Amino acid sequence: MSIASDAVAAAPLAMPASAIKMRGRKVSVYYGEKQALFDVDLDIASNQVTSLIGPSGCGKSTFLRCLNRMNDTIPICRVTGEIKLDDLNVYESGIDVVELRARVGMVFQKPNPFPKTIYENVAYGPRIHGMSRSRGELDELVNSSLRRAGLWEEVKDRLAQPGTGLSGGQQQRLCIARAIATSPEVLLMDEPCSALDPIATAIIEELIDELRENFTIVIVTHSMQQAARVSQKTAFFHLGKLIEEGSTESIFTNPQNKKTQDYITGRIG
Amino acid sequence: MTATSVAAPIGATRAGSASIQRRRNAADLRLRLYGIAAISAAIGLLGILLVTLIVGGYPAFVQTHIRVDFPVSADYVDPADPAGGNWRNVVRDGVAALLPAVDAPADVRRMTQILTPNTQFFVRDAVLADPGVIGGTLTMDIPAADIFDQLNKGVIRRDTPAENRRVSDQQIGWFDALVARGRVATPFNWGLFFNADSRFPEIAGLSGAIVGTVYALLVCFLISFPTGIAAAVYLEEFAPKNRWTDIIEVNINNLAAVPSIVFGLLGLAVFIQTFGLPRSSPLVGGMVLALMALPTIIIVTRNALKAVPPSIREAAHGMGASPQQVVMHHVLPLSLPGIMTGTIIAFAHVLGETAPLLLIGMNAFITSPPGGVLEASTALPTQIYIWADSPERGFVARTSAGILVLLGVLLVMNSVAIFLRQRFERRW
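ok -> structure tokens follow
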């Protein structure tokens, strides 16, 4: 019995290296003097949904924001350790952050479309990265991004209207369309449904499952049910430390660590 | 109200609570009355100011004109050289023809005083513009000299003893005869806006001051707007938060409170004495005003930038926009309405600044609008200052009229600012 459970826990680590999209090694993050993340080792599997769970302030969002260096915008934030995207060392000096963020897109907690038209929202990324040579190409890119985000049918007649006029769920899907318009390899989602109603949440979750085919997705969520529904891999953070990671099924049905068990059964959080 | 009525029965069980409640209500009422009294006083004072200005300034918006037919005789004006004509004689003949009863040369000379002393130049300019009139008759509406203008407007009273007024009974008789003949009209005084300054109030206008103010504000805008925005964007979006930026911030806030005359002294010492820029010019005026507008623009721009929610910056950063793109594509366009509003208010403030302009000599007596930013000029507030200092009766009304024009411009600028704020203000 114990041998079998060990095998389950060890399985993700034994995955072939080619299937690992991003790799974090001894990642520590400091906000000024305060350390927020302690030596986290975590691999993100390619074309899978990895969910990061844990109580508030556990460092899951901090880790997520390390993956595309969004923490750079906070002046007092300092990151040590190593994060690799394929063979690219993300925190190496001389890395073009702009290029990195085109490869690692992000969707935020609160839907934050630009106060521009729906079209301009989606076209913004391709524009600044010079991804389309003609208006026709750009139109095509906007069209396909909105389709993949499942928003096309709802907005195809009002592309020239402001994105801020959409409902919350539509706005979040617009943000997803905006993020995938630059064809990123990895999509980071920071509690993408926490500001949405249950129906909009269900639509987004379905969408995440579809997007997995083309993107590697990392999602931070407060909802364990959501993690169980959408992700294949789950990592549990507590007080800045990675407590346990593994396949979602094993984490939720057979957690190895006492803290993980306490969290998923609702005793801490 | 509801709270009081609910609380009353509970409080009523306590001894003396009724009197406490009465006192509390009385205190509330007093506070409200103090507020109403203060607002009434403020509105009343403003009303008195406006009424005084309008009553005092109204006469300057109309101007007494006298229609004169000038016989432009070829004897006085050589068609080959019209500029060298004897315009004094042309005016004299025109005046002599007004009233047939007046023909003694001394009387004609005294009657000529009814017209503005610049009449001969008006006639000359009209003939130069249309030389075909030589040999014929030129009909013109000539502004009446100040004292007759004031007489016509009732400012100079006819029942004043003759020795105490500067206009004789004989001249009043002539003037009345002209009125009886329909020669006198009092139309709207466009000259107030289209004439430059003059020693003679009847032909003095604000055009030089308006053009000077426009030039000065243009220079001020070109300097302070880009500089202010650049400084604010750097401080708000890029500068590290440390002791140096704190010191800079405190100093910018202090700069906004420096008395304006100090900026005038600075302009005099630095721009005129050290750099040798021309005195009295709108260029120097605009530069001094830019120094005054700069702190305000920096402060309002920083506030407008702060009002853009961080989620927009995050979204742009997350899309891979560089810091420059985040600012230029998103933050700055979104804060522009706020920046514009603040800038207009800053400009409305410097528009009325007088002290710094006095120090750099923009209170000169200039009889033509400046042709460029380097030419000597006045500005609206300094023109008002000059007129307020002039002894002629006509300048009393013109001072009030000038203030009304200045207030009108301020009102328009503030309305535009309010409109922009209402129209483009974004709630997040």
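The radius of gyration of chain A is 19 Å.
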